[in-house]
Amino acid sequence: RQMPVWKRLRQSERGACPRVLQHAKEELTAVASGEPSLALEALPYFPIAARFASRRDDPLLGVALDTGHVNLYSTQRIDNYKLHCLEKETFRPHSTLVYCIDWAVGEDKLITGSADRTCRITDVRRPETSMAFVGHDSIVRSVSAHPDTPAIFASSDRAGRILTWDIRTSGVSKRPANTILAAPPRSAVSVPAVQYLADGWTLLSASSKGDLQLWDMRRSHTSRMDARPMGSLPRPHTGRYGVSSLSLDASGTVLLAACTNMELHIHRIICGASAAVDVIKCDGLTFHSKAALSADGRLVACGDGCGGAVRLWKTRDHRAEPVTLTSPTMPHVGGAAFHPDDHALVTYGEDQAVRVWEIRR
Question: Which pairing describes strands 254-259 and 273-281: parallel, antiparallel, or unpaired?
Fold first, then answer.
């Protein structure tokens, strides 16, 4: 029987030498050559989302699949850049497709949202103790962990509802702590993404109509249609487009919104308001594409949903030509996520493979 990931992590902290994945034995080099530094494996199912845990010391990597499974990889840095992947574990918190994942701050607890209309929190040290949260009427499209309190998270669904949960109370009552109807019922407006801002009480929601609304979570909202946002972030231009994903840097001052009109919008956040918006043109963005923002807010990564490439921009020089990462075996790229120390980028796509790229700056 394989040793659990958390035990291997503790052994590695004590100096034990864990076994490296066979798929990871061939170390490919340098981003400049256009090859990933680490190819984890060819998965039997399609990866939908990927996320590193928030801690910087050899964090766990979670990869959500379209079968309800989550693959969990433990990572280890062997020098300034090279990243090794240790053995993986697989568990199944949901019965069908997992749309979104996030990690509780400072803990090895994975938050997942699924097409089965539920959210779950799983302690990866004890995957059998998964806790279910029921309250959505449609597919859960996004989850966001609270930046300070690991017991709190938010979720949104395709029916336009936003729910917040507190494990300390919701875990007993199985009811959401707050319910926001961000769109009228049967309006065909969904909320593909939610994101807590750095202050911990402001929740940002993105709609399929392109609206970015700010909600004060110190208020007690109800399921009635009287909920009103306390503000919104500006749209850089008029036009019809939706938002597919949101990403916030570690300081909470740079926000990235991936839009369905093949644009990336970079908002500079000051006191809960957007001081400026930069626009990056990115061909190949789809409604399900997930772009990534580095923890220091200096890099943006986006996969090409219509071709096998990943592009990197500097947020301070976004008009310059991006760095393009390609591999001969990489088709359409569905999403990306940065390592917490920004030295690596994980990508996933339709070839059912997960790749890790070195980022040298």
Answer: unpaired
